[in-house]
Amino acid sequence: MADVMSMEDIHATAARLNVDLSSLDLGSIRLPPAEDFGIVSDDEDLKEEESLEFEEGFANIIVVDNLPVVPKEKFEKLEGVIRKIYSQIGVIKEDGLWMPVDSETQKTLGYCFIEYNTPQEAELAKEKTNGYKLDRSHIFAVNMFDDIEKFMKVPEEWAPPETRPYTPGENLQKWLTDEKARDQFVIRAGTDTEVLWNDARQSKPELVYKRSYWTESFVQWSPLGTYLATVHRQGAAVWGGATTFNRLMRYAHPQVKLIDFSPGERFLVTYSSHEPSNPRDTHRVVINIFDVRTGKVMRDFKGSADEFATGGTGGVSGVSWPVFRWGGGKDDKYFARIGKNVISVYETETFTLIDKKSIKVENVVDFSWSPTDPILALFVPELGGGNQPARVSLVQIPSKEELRQKNLFSVSDCKMYWQSNGDYLAVKVDRYTKTKKSTYTGFELFRIKERDIPIEVLELENKNDKIIAFAWEPKGHRFAVIHGDNPRPDVSFYSMRSGTSTGRVSKLTTLKGKQANALYWSPSGRFIILAGLKGFNGQLEFYNVDELETMAQAEHFMATDVEWDPTGRYVVTAVTSVHEMENGFNVWSFNGKLLYRIPRDHFFQFLWRPRPPSFLSPEKEEEIAKNLKKYSKKYEAEDQDVSLLLSEQDREKRRMLKEEWDRWVSEWKRLHEEEKLERQKLRDGEASDDEEEYEAKEVEIEELLDVSEEVISFD
């Protein structure tokens, strides 16, 4: 701000400089462009208001072309149709729909202008309706009003675009090239979020990136490990990079609560729920589907919580997540949601319903996709008091052809489990007994890849056993079941192959009386952890299913989570902040050896970074497994080097501790020598410090403390 001078100061300064103020033409004085020397103009506020009004422009107006040309008597009907289409997207301003009319013919000119309340609504209307087919002859062409000026500046003659040199972006998968073949993980504790290497050889993690207040609720890896997503009040963001974590894209979605990636990482689904102004109304739900790379909204869904509840009924708590389930493998071709008596399947090329209509399935309550193929498994419960049986159907997409159907009787509940390769589908069926007073459980096992999809029924030896947990072996043919009503249930292992026959299920073994209520297979199969969480206080049994033997038993007191790393080499058990004490995580080898512990107060989250599928063919992987000894020599030598290095470090540490001890002893000896004369004085001139030269004597000393006289009467 410039200094303020009084008129007296101005006249005094002019007299000192011999300047005649009366001869100056103040109107001819011009300040340099954009310079006011700190002096605010009287009309500055007015100028700011004008600039704001100018900046708003016409960004909230769209132009809709290719409308029908109609006479005056059909004008109102056409306007109603247009208003109905565009009012679903946003709020049209009062008098915000204008359709020009030819003054001579009194017919519309085939286009209109629509003014929304906000530019965002106008942009969304353009995205959603450009190319909209009103009928065969009229396909909408929608543009922003502000783009008209840009179109007017298009040159008459075409000129080739400027060729820009290619600049490669960062390698977002560089972490996969780590020379030590380590895996990364992310943790959240307190206000900090950290990404670390799991360095099992060094028995400690190595920090990659750390940031405080990185997210406002949770973090989530994308399915192939390319991105780390964070959640904020304004929306979500994804991070990644070759050596660090940079923000790659933002996704605007106020008050976002949940996010979900498509399997191939092409799309990100965000969810928010907003309280209604009227307490009697249900929450309003907003779901956006973004293109991960561009940040563009590909499709949005809005409605009440009831509309997004399972089966189309229920309140806010009835909304299941994820609302949209992705299918068709890693191509991200299809996604679907369940509604009242329908399954709505969308394809991602146009983000519209397949064949523009949902699949009608009366009273459908659940569905799930095959992990690898565009096949839907649907469950419909019994109807009419049991007159119409429950059923499980397999439906091919996009043809909507029913591949297989199985009717089920006396069903109380049903749950579906796909094997990771999509080879098998297990349907756990809870059935009523004849008295209807209790239930028992069995399994319907579908062999998806075999001809006509044969189905096999599996019942436990004790049909009344409660099923506590079920889990398929990843990429394998075996599954495990925890069953029983005792405090120590049994664990049974089954195979979909029986000896030389691959078409019959067989039991491998049953482990009696285990402290387990959860099953965690290694991602590479073969090994499994039988975990006793919650009431079992973190009991762990590491089991080899190939050899049918226990490798180790351990305990992580109060453990709440078990997470295998993507390679199946290491596993983490964690105690999160649901418990106030013992927060942190332990890292174990696949065979149950504790490698290291990391305590962390207020520990919220642990997530291994996923790995994308290997580029090696199954034949190549099999060849490597056969020649493992040849390949392992290199890594055994590296392990030996690391072991020697650690041994050397341990020796160096012990040497330093010994030197420190020797220095401490030397210092005390020096002090002892300096205080020798003082000790001699205290011993009345005795010079020796050797205790053996002294003789201990007991000396009794009598001392008169008090004398008193008392007269005693003999009467």
TrEMBL record:
SMART domains: RRM
Presence of keyword Membrane: no
PROSITE patterns: RRM
Superkingdom in the source lineage: Eukaryota
A GO BP entry: formation of cytoplasmic translation initiation complex
Signal peptide from the UniProt entry: none
GO cellular component: eukaryotic 43S preinitiation complex; eukaryotic 48S preinitiation complex; eukaryotic translation initiation factor 3 complex
GO terms, molecular function: RNA binding; translation initiation factor activity; translation initiation factor binding
Classification via InterPro entries: EIF3B, eIF3B_RRM, Nucleotide-bd_a/b_plait_sf, RBD_domain_sf, RRM_dom, TIF_beta_prop-like, WD40/YVTN_repeat-like_dom_sf
Function noted in UniProt: RNA-binding component of the eukaryotic translation initiation factor 3 (eIF-3) complex, which is involved in protein synthesis of a specialized repertoire of mRNAs and, together with other initiation factors, stimulates binding of mRNA and methionyl-tRNAi to the 40S ribosome. The eIF-3 complex specifically targets and initiates translation of a subset of mRNAs involved in cell proliferation.
Assembly: Component of the eukaryotic translation initiation factor 3 (eIF-3) complex.
Family listed: Belongs to the eIF-3 subunit B family.
Name of the protein: Eukaryotic translation initiation factor 3 subunit B
Organism, scientific name: Sesamum radiatum (Black benniseed)
